[in-house]
Amino acid sequence: MSSVFARSAAAEAAVDTPPRSTADTIAHEIEDHRALLLDFSHALHADPEVSGDEHRAAERTRSILRRAGFAFDDIQPSAPTALSATFGTSDFVVTFCVEYDALPDIGHACGHNVNAAAALGAALALAPLADELDLTVHVLGTPSEEAHGGKIDLIEEGFFSRTHAAAMVHASAYDSAGNSSLALNAWKVTYTGVAAHAASAPAAGINALDAVQIAQTAIAVARQQLPPRSVVSTVVTRGGDAVNIIPDHTELMVEMRSPLAEDLEVISDRVDKCLRAGALATDCEITVEPQGHAFADLRQNDGLVQAYVAAMAERGRDVPTDAEAVASTDMGNVSHTVPAIHPLIGYEVNGAVNHNRAFADHGTSASADSAVLDGAYGLARAMAMAAADEVLRERLIERHRNHH
Predict the structure, then answer these.
(1) Is 213 exposed, middle or buried (0-12, 13-18, 19+ CB in 10 A)?
(2) What residues contact residue 108 under an 8 Å CB cut-off, 6+ apart?
(3) pTM exceeding 0.85
(4) Of 235, 266, 290, which one is at a domain's C-terminal end?
(5) Is residue 8 assigned to a domain?
(6) Which terminus of the chain has a lower count of CB atoms within 10 Å, N or C?
(7) Same domain, yes or no, for 272 and 231?
(8) pLDDT per residue as tens digits for the range 362-396
(9) What is the 3-state secondary structure (H, E, C) of 201-254?
(10) Mean pLDDT, residues 240-263 taken together
(11) What is the radius of gyration, based on Cα positions, of the chain?
């Protein structure tokens, strides 16, 4: 008798309890996954893997998604450390990019453990709402951002072809939304000359180091005529073998950046001429090898940015919007392909900057952990808003229709 009464009371309470709002459901799911997400972030941080070698990070991600009921696509990315998984059956697809590569020698000094955990958390939090919001949650494990640009491989292989909106957050010392990034191109340049004794037969040699010096001087002079805010960086990685031998083999790394992808083409053309001037003046042979993909500038979707800012306000974070270009990312190429956001999620780093060992030291602090959870909420809630907002949803669908 008492058990029947208990069930009846429970049923009555369930009827009287108002259903959770979307925001409450997302917050509840993130809290429910708190330990899992922070353990994931800390595990990546303690076990950093450089671009292309993120095997354990990818497997950790797969394991969590598998247990959460995500289905892995029949066709997977060609990169062994990339992955593609979905939850839901809707034609409206939101993609979260799980970025997990570290830097050589200094580990997660760009905070990708935070990036990855926040994106994964967003996917886990949004999945239970897939039917209610009529969306499919798509997760891409995206390797090699610090090297050749793994997201660009995924674009070329078609893994963003069904995406209506893509999102991730990036670790930073401060919160910001709407930022751009610098388009980026990088080359390895090799000059080949002829070795000769530097004292007894210098005229018999062809000096490959002279070619480097001429090229660097030409680049320095050309900077004045390059598009505004252009950045050209060079470093000599091989300058010769002995002081008494005319160098016959030198290597130079060149990196070019610009606020706009269109201007990067102008910069690349001018720098190429400067490099070839070094070869022409010295009679050296030259080879120019692209190092990975060219990164496009980041162009974040205004509607998604505003949704993210509103979502973060619900977590008590007042996120400013700023169009300033910050560093470079292959998420820029994603943003040229589909509507996307790539906000910065801030935590206390005691004045350190990205790509600095000191930045990595703060990657598992209480402040970084809060960034993981808040970032996950912001991403999930923003995508939920996009799905529920008829005007924004239709704009995203129309963009997809026109570009695919």
Answers:
(1) middle
(2) 44, 45, 48, 102, 360, 363
(3) yes
(4) 290
(5) no
(6) N
(7) yes
(8) 999 999 999 999 999 999 999 999 999 999 999 99
(9) CHHHCECHHHHHHHHHHHHHHHHHHCCCCCEEEEEEEECCCCCCECCCEEEEEE
(10) 96
(11) 25
